[in-house]
Amino acid sequence: MATLALDIGGTKIAAGVVSDDGDLMHRAQEKTPDEREAIWGVVERLLTEAKGTAGELTGVGIGSAGPIDLHTGTVSPINIHAWDDFPIVDRVAELTGLPVRLGGDGLCMALGEQWRGAGQDARFMLGMVVSTGIGGGLVLDGAPYDGRTGNAGHVGHVVVDVDGAKCTCGGHGCVETVASGPSIARWARDHGWDAPPESNAKELADAAKTGDPTALRAYYRGATAIAAAIASVAAVCDLDLVVIGGGVAKSKGLLFLPLRETLTWYAGLDFIQELRVEPAVLGGDAGLIGAAKLATLAE
Ligand SMILES: [Zn+2]
């Protein structure tokens, strides 16, 4: 037996087949188009293809960029403008004839890492993706935590700067405005990093590795903001592990060394002193594996 999995993001859509043990047996992805029915066309094609590679299937798990609405089974991703209240659960159920369960992409990433990745020994875990934006999801007492509408775990919008810049969410001073890839690169350019305007966090990481002091400071500042956000969430949720994936986390030590160092500054309470922060290990597969896990769990 196996499960169909779907991962919907602003830049790509992926579908897969995941075995009951969490092995990803099939995976395919396509770029996310701009138009409402064209996006659905990609989902339809990928799911139909995935279904064709599998034997008996028990259900479909969907991880989608948010916000989502679990009550209506709809998604309105900020970075997919053509999908506002898109009825993804009904459409996928109709297409596949299978039971469907929906979750946020951050939740699915966290669940995937907890099942088959870096979080296998954790029961209270925050999964974070630091990339173009910052997303996340919570696994609490071993179970995915949805929240009231399915949007719990939006850790990118923990406020770390009370006088901070406006965020894409409409709020101000969110950690995403300081520590997302584009935010880190923008800060570096504003502070003397000599690079073309389109340079991103990957190029900044390359500069930091050659010892560029502004690039190093930019990563240090981003890592510090993430540490502050993590300490806040850990104090609220009594966590034992944070797993971080995404493009910015690929810089490994550049992010993790200052992050762990500054975390000791923000995490004051005794019960979060032992909090561990580890790199994700499943990469882009975590969302599919976690979506499949979600589908196997009872509502
Ligand atoms: Zn925000």
UniProtKB/TrEMBL annotation:
Protein name as it appears in the record: ROK family protein
InterPro entries: ATPase_NBD (IPR043129), ROK (IPR000600), ROK_cs (IPR049874)
Pfam family, one: ROK
Entry-linked PROSITE patterns: ROK
SUPFAM superfamilies: Actin-like ATPase domain
Family: Belongs to the ROK (NagC/XylR) family.
Domain of life: Bacteria
